[in-house]
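Field log, afternoon session.

UNIT: design team B
ACTIVITY: writing a sequence onto a fixed backbone
BACKBONE:
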C-alpha cells in the first residue's frame, strides 16, 4: 500500500521553524501478514510471556455477558522490542512492551478504559528476564468481536518526527501550518498526527476537539504512548473505523495509563 510522500523533518522545520518546540518522536509500524515468532516485534503475534506469570483474564461485564463470567483470556494486540523500535518512551528498566485486550465491547468499564471498546492490559518487561516462555496461552472462552482479533503480522518500523494538529498550537502558528499542509500530501495532511499503528507522536482527533488526559496519580498531563489503528492488513476495526489510543504518564510509567477511543 502506497503512503503519501511526507517532507523530511528538516524540510518541515525549514518551512516553519516555530514548530520545533512541538515536535515529538514517533515510530509508525507498517504491518504485513506473516508468521512472527515470540522473539519478534509483531501485531497479533505470539508474546514472549513468562511461563510462571498468569495470563491476563477479563471478568468484566460486556455486551453479550452482562455479569462478565466466565472470565475470558485476553488476546495479544502488539509486542514491541526496544532493539527494533528505539525511542524516548522506553523506561530505564524495560526493553519490551506488550499490549493485550479483551476482544469484547465493554459498555461500563473502569475509569481508565474507553467505553464501548476492548479492555486493555499493558506490560513493560525486560526480555532477558523471561527464562521460560509460556508456549500455549489460553484462548478466549467467551464471544469475541472479529475486529478485535488481530491477524498475525510482522512489522516494519518507520521512525519520524510528528507534529500536532493546528488546534493544539498557539493561534499565531495556525495559518502558516495550514498553508504548509495545503502544499504537501496530495490534498491530505501528512505533516501532523501521522496515522497508523504508532508508538509515540501526537494523537488524531476526529470526533472531538483536542483534550488533555491527566494522570490519576500525579495529575501530570499524559502523552500518547501507542495508537491502535483500524486497517485491513491486521483486520482490526475499533470504533467506526477509528483509533484506540493509550496515553501514559511521562513522569512514571508505573502510573495507570488511560485509554481513549476515537
Amino acid at each position: 500500500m502506497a503512503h503519501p510522500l511526507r517532507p523530511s523533518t528538516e524540510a518541515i522545520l525549514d518551512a516553519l521553524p516555530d514548530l520545533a518546540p512541538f515536535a515529538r518522536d514517533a515510530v509508525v509500524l507498517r504491518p504485513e501478514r506473516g508468521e512472527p515468532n515470540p522473539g519478534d516485534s509483531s501485531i497479533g503475534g505470539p508474546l514472549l510471556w513468562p511461563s510462571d506469570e498468569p495470563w491476563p483474564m477479563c471478568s468484566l461485564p460486556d455486551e453479550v455477558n452482562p455479569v462478565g463470567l466466565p472470565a475470558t483470556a485476553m488476546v495479544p494486540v502488539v509486542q514491541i522490542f526496544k532493539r527494533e523500535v528505539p525511542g524516548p518512551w522506553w523506561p530505564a528498566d524495560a526493553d519490551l512492551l506488550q499490549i493485550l485486550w479483551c476482544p469484547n465491547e465493554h459498555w461500563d468499564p473502569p475509569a481508565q478504559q474507553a467505553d464501548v471498546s476492548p479492555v486493555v492490559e499493558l506490560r513493560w518487561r525486560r526480555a532477558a528476564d523471561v527464562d521460560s516462555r509460556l508456549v500455549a496461552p489460553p484462548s478466549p472462552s467467551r464471544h469475541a468481536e472479529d475486529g478485535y482479533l488481530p491477524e498475525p503480522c510482522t512489522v516494519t518500523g518507520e521512525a519520524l518526527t510528528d507534529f500536532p494538529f493546528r488546534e493544539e498550537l498557539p493561534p499565531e502558528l495556525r495559518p502558516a501550518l495550514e498553508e504548509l499542509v495545503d502544499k504537501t500530501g496530495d490534498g491530505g495532511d501528512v505533516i501532523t498526527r501521522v496515522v497508523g499503528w504508532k508508538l509515540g507522536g501526537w494523537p488524531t482527533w476526529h470526533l472531538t476537539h483536542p483534550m488533555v488526559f491527566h494522570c490519576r496519580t500525579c495529575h501530570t498531563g499524559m502523552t500518547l504512548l501507542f495508537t491502535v489503528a483500524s486497517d485491513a492488513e491486521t483486520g482490526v476495526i475499533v470504533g467506526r473505523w477509528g483509533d484506540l489510543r493509550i496515553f501514559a504518564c511521562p513522569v512514571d510509567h508505573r502510573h495507570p495509563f488511560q485509554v481513549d477511543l476515537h
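LOG NOTE: The longest strand covers residues 96-106.
NEXT ACTIVITY: expression trials, pending approval
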